[in-house]
Amino acid sequence: MAGGIVEKPASGEVIHPKVHYLNASKGLKSWLVTLDHKRIAIMYLVAVSVALLLGGFWAVLLRTELLGPRDMILSNDWYNRAFTLHGAVMVFLFIIPGIPASLGNFILPMQLGAKDLALPRVNLMSWYLYVIGLVFFLAVLFLGGLDTGWTLYPPYSSGRDIQWNLILSYTAVFILGFSSILTGLNFIATMHKLRPKGMSMYHMPLFLWALYATSLIQVLATPVVGLTLGLSLVEHMFKIGIFLPQYGGDPVMYQHFFWFYSHPAVYIMVLPAMGVQSEMIATFSRKHVFGYKAIGWSSIAIAAIGFLVWGHHMFVSGQSPTAGIIFSLLTFFVAIPSAIKVFNWVATLYKGSIDFKSPMIYALSFIYLFGIGGLTGLFLASIATNVHLHDTYFIIAHFHMVMVGSVLTAFLGGVHYWWPKMTGRMYNETLGRIAAVMVFIGFNVTFMPQFVAGTRGMPRRYANYLDEFTIFHQISTIGAYILGAAVVLQAGYLLHSLFKGKKAPPNPWGAASLEWQATSPPDFHNFTEKPIVMGAYDFENWELVSEDAGYRLKREVVETGKSLSKVH
Amino acid sequence: MMADLGLGKLAGLPLAQSGGSFWFPPQSSTVAAGSDFTYFLILWLCIIFFVGICGATLYFMVKYRKRPGHKEEITSTHNTRLELAWSIIPLILLLVVFGVSTYWYLEMVNPPNSGVREIRVEASQWKWRFTYSGAPFTKNWTTKKLYLIKDKPYQMIMTTPDRDVIHSMFIPAFRVKQDCVPGRYNKLWFQPTESGEFDLFCTEYCGRDHSEMITKVVVVETEAEWKRLVETEYDPEAYTIEDLGPVIYADNCTSCHTLDGRQIENGGPSFQGFGERWGKERKFADGTSRVVDETYVKDSLEKPGMNVVQGYPNAMTSFNFNEKEREAIIAFLRKQ
Description:
The complex is a heterodimer.
Chain A: H1 28-32, H2 37-65, H3 76-111, H4 120-142, H5 164-193, H6 206-238, H7 251-285, H8 292-305, H9 321-349, H10 358-381, H11 383-389, H12 393-423, H13 429-455, H14 470-500, E1 542-546, E2 550-553, H15 555-560
Antiparallel strand pairs in A: 1-2
Helix pairs in contact in A: 2-3, 2-4, 2-14, 3-4, 3-5, 3-6, 3-7, 3-12, 4-5, 5-6, 6-7, 6-8, 7-9, 7-10, 7-12, 8-9, 9-10, 10-12, 10-13, 12-13, 13-14
Chain B: H1 7-11, H2 32-63, H3 80-109, E1 117-124, E2 127-132, E3 141-143, E4 146-149, E5 154-159, E6 167-171, E7 176-180, E8 186-190, E9 196-202, E10 214-220, H4 223-233, H5 241-252, H6 274-277, E11 281-283, E12 289-291, H7 294-302, H8 323-334
Parallel strand pairs in B: 1-5, 4-10
Antiparallel strand pairs in B: 1-2, 2-3, 5-8, 6-7, 6-9, 9-10, 11-12
Helix pairs in contact in B: 2-3, 5-8
């Protein structure tokens, strides 16, 4: 346990720091060359939010087109561009970097009681690489868009005449890959080197376990997609045979390489979300997380097994049936660690004191949405059903339940949860709850009908469709509008809170991980005094002062510098 | 077989095809029932787990909600027995599902040992061609719809021209799907168990008219009826050269080439005024030029990347027409 305790205000009076990381230095330059992980995190948060709005714009556009079975507002060509850009922007620019690079960047060093990441310059470089990737994608838009689907399958992508928009897209993903690898490397180094005395790996908050597993995948899998797209780029420009049959290549090999990264990438997306989830569930039920080690190790297990299941994207591609059966079996195994996490979250609620603050509403909808997303994965792990459901709307509904239902929900929950810490302001709680409920309803209305459209045979990526599917598409589009409205509402009250929101106390929720011992917003050096190292879920150490002043450490904790918790 | 939930009627939703349920189109092949059985097995397992998880969550949400006078209690933070139970029981259930699913999948990939009829499937942007050879025919027949006889096993030999893109053949009523990959010959077998017309979709994204790449599977009762349908759908021999040209154009060219000068986005040049170009030099994107004549037309059909007209993408797929069809195309183009 850390010593050197400096007196804390025991009066319950909240200190709002006059100087903090947001105003420690001023001017655009002080942001653009900052090495402060918190500022880089805020810059990431702005950038990924821009990507979310851009990807969401395309989603609303294509859902509107699908209101009717034939052309409504988009030609076939523009529909194809809309779904390609929706997918590419959401996957590469929002979901993959979203939680780790924004929330993770801010919170990871603080949960370790550290001043910064291990490699602050590398962190800034990651952000610049990300922005270059974002700019490249915007350039693709102005070059007429891209209609290959986010998967960029040859021969449809690289088999045509040289196209600059395609070359730019390959390059963009390549560069974004480096951004992702460097972030992962930085996180791993930080968690190994900057943990404080008294905090073993098993004392880290589960958010950090999740980020650790994510970082492992980022470092190990991302180079493969970089190489694959590099090969595609060379093939596209110089016509050598790798994936293109007219030069003697094999397009199915591309799919193997692509999914070797892109399936683990699904876990790059969902693991950090599960980490955020563990924090929110514990904090708002005021309970130590149930089955800490099981949740932590299941993150690592998901990361490890996730490397061995890519072939389930290719059951009908011409891959051998034997390979298909093995991939099916391995895919079923991923379900176990995922299920363990869900059971543990539910068990954490037991005998707690459940506070329905906005982040908790997201956390509870996560259990429901991830439940559906995860369980519907079983239909796809099973080959006999996968053959029928592959490339139909069932798949669309399944992975949106996981990637949007779970990841976006956790991202939004996490943004609300750490908003007071990051900005020093409280958002409007009532509007926060309304938006959270709207997001939940929106997801369900959008994606539940798509499961049934899929089992009935509606293929994905169709600009026009047979009349019998109209009702499913129309309900789905209404859901998309509800979701869109919720996001606009959030943007509104969150931005409003920056200027007019109540000042946030250091610990409004009574959470126990170390970042809540810092002021809101934190000092430039994160902590003005050394934080008392304690278990991430030792809620006993905190007592409520008042709704406005939030929680403070109990006097005996401050005096002894020791956790009161007897749970280990 | 587990019954469907009967929700279709409750919700008043239109049924996909007659005989279909809330979830599925009718079961019209020998493997459909197995696929659906696996689906409902998983569905019921999912419902049990989902109701359990959400039920417990809702119960805790109400019982342990924050309220005056209620305080959290410290409970144990792990319980090895409980945790092992909720890991191992699902694992066993999943292995059972895996076994059932794999059993039915093996049915899907292993055709019967004898009596299987071969049909060659060629998918290209954006059409399907099915070729039947051998008895009872004395020559190859190619059709746009897939004609089958009820209760006979068929093996599809599937491919795509080298310069084309990946497609995928999906017949929802049969619960089967297989990609058509350029440079590969993929196989798919099935045996229809019901006569009637069924949808056949392309389910691998293949460009602009992906969503228009839909045709029908026609299953009939008798060999004689099947032979008659195959022979009369399209037979170049049944047409004169004059009449054949427009038929070939309508079947193959309209998604990229117009006759009235209109330009299709990402398509090829319009055929308007092609006759006037006949015998004259034409310039190409790579700077070369050649005289528009019979050989030029033949090359453009078989090796479309060889002479790409300036200002157009190199996007055409290759065609292998027989001599009579080629003659018909030449005659048709000269008249434009």
